[in-house]
Design brief:
Blueprint lengths: L2 E2 H7 L9 H14 L7 H15 L4 H4 L3 H4 L3 H7 L2 H6 L7 H22 L1 H30 L2 H4 L3 E2 L2 H11 L6 E4 L2 E4 L3 H12 L5 H21 L4 H13 L1 H13 L4 E3 L2 E3 L12 E3 L6 E3 L16 H9 L8 H13 L1
Antiparallel strand pairs: 1-2, 3-4, 5-6, 7-8
Helix pairs in contact: 2-8, 3-8, 6-9, 8-9, 8-11, 9-11, 9-13, 9-14, 11-13, 12-13
């Protein structure tokens, strides 16, 4: 949640004449994902694209997607009517181009850092958990204020936007940071930046959803507490990981087929030249020459590349010594025998 509906009704919603902020947002995304060595986290990219498409509503999406008035977060309608559409979809709707721009630039910066450090599966499960927690806490707070002091303003408020999740992500990102940040002329510890930003946004932009932003901060704190309490991968991460494995199984199966069809190493005749490996790493049916690392068939006891005797075959080794072999070849001798072999 981020902005109240009153601002949205004045400014309009959806595809209209761009004020230049969306091209600037696209440029920032291209710069971040186009940098050499960039990690290019896919979940962050999907979230950016999804929020932008919902706001622009291009082509057939305009007739498929529900309107902003249908999905706006309203505690009364969600509690009394069980309207889960408002609960789950309201974070992905934005009221204006500037609303979308500021939220998505924040998501771009936070998402890349968190997804790169956590991994895509855990990051996706974290975003889902933070979304559910922030929305649920907003419901509890608005209902609690109504019961305690008859504060109907929060209970009847309409709000949309991804900023509740972004506040939660800020809490997670800065939880163990010892750095300081510069925020509107103040230097404060990074771990308290979300609280300072909560107050400053409310002072400078009164139309924003204070309860939604506060719920995001509390959701981030609850998420960190649950992570410490569980002391391991949370069930949602395991679920996302399992679904990912099932979905990507055909791709991994095709990759295994390609690798098996193109084994590593340089083939020559009936053997191949590979790295120095232990005997147990050598493929079955072959033995690796200790002098030149050529893989020979077990049917022969003398290396086809450099004529070194097979060390693990006692009878052939004795036979080779009786023929005048020493079992040890110099580098020059190996080079001479290779040239002699391929020069024939």
């Amino acid at each position: 949640m981020g902005s109240g509906m009153s601002r949205g009704r004045r400014r309009g919603f959806g595809a209209g004449a761009s004020g230049g902020m969306l091209p600037l947002l696209a440029l920032q995304v291209l710069i971040e994902y186009g940098r050499a060595g960039a990690s290019r986290p896919p979940v962050t990219a999907a979230l950016l694209a999804g929020n932008a498409l919902i706001y622009l509503r291009p082509g057939a999406l305009d007739g498929i997607l529900p309107s902003v008035t249908r999905v706006s977060f309203n505690p009364r309608l969600i509690v009394e009517n069980g309207d889960l559409v408002r609960f789950f979809l309201s974070p992905f709707y934005h009221l204006s181009e500037s609303h979308l721009f500021y939220n998505m630039t924040s998501l771009l910066w936070k998402g890349i850092q968190l997804e790169t450090s956590m991994g895509s599966v855990e990051f996706a499960s974290m975003v889902a958990a933070l979304l559910g927690l922030s929305q649920g806490i907003a419901l509890l707070l608005s209902k609690g204020l109504l019961l305690l002091g008859d504060y109907t303003a929060y209970y009847d408020q309409y709000a949309v936007g991804f900023s509740g999740v972004l506040f939660a992500m800020k809490v997670v990102l800065n939880a163990w940071s010892e750095d300081f940040v510069y925020l509107h002329g103040m230097v404060i510890p990074a771990k308290y930046a979300a609280w300072a930003e909560l107050i400053l946004i409310q002072v400078f932009i009164p139309g924003t959803s204070f309860l939604g932003h506060l719920s995001g901060i509390l959701a981030g704190l609850v998420y960190l507490w649950l992570k410490r309490a569980l002391n391991g991968p949370d069930p949602l991460t395991l679920l996302v990981s399992s679904i990912t494995k099932v979905v990507t199984w055909p791709v991994r199966f095709a990759q295994n087929l390609l690798w098996s069809a193109h084994p590593q190493g340089r083939f020559r005749g009936r053997g191949r030249v590979g790295r120095r490996q232990s005997a147990r790493d050598t493929p079955r049916g072959l033995w690796r020459c200790p002098a030149c690392t050529y893989d020979n068939s077990v049917s022969t006891d003398i290396c086809e590349m450099c004529s070194t005797a097979r060390e693990d075959h006692d009878f052939s080794l004795r036979q080779y010594h009786q023929a005048g072999g020493t079992g040890e070849l110099t580098v020059d001798e190996i080079r001479r025998r290779r040239l002699q072999r391929f020069g024939r």
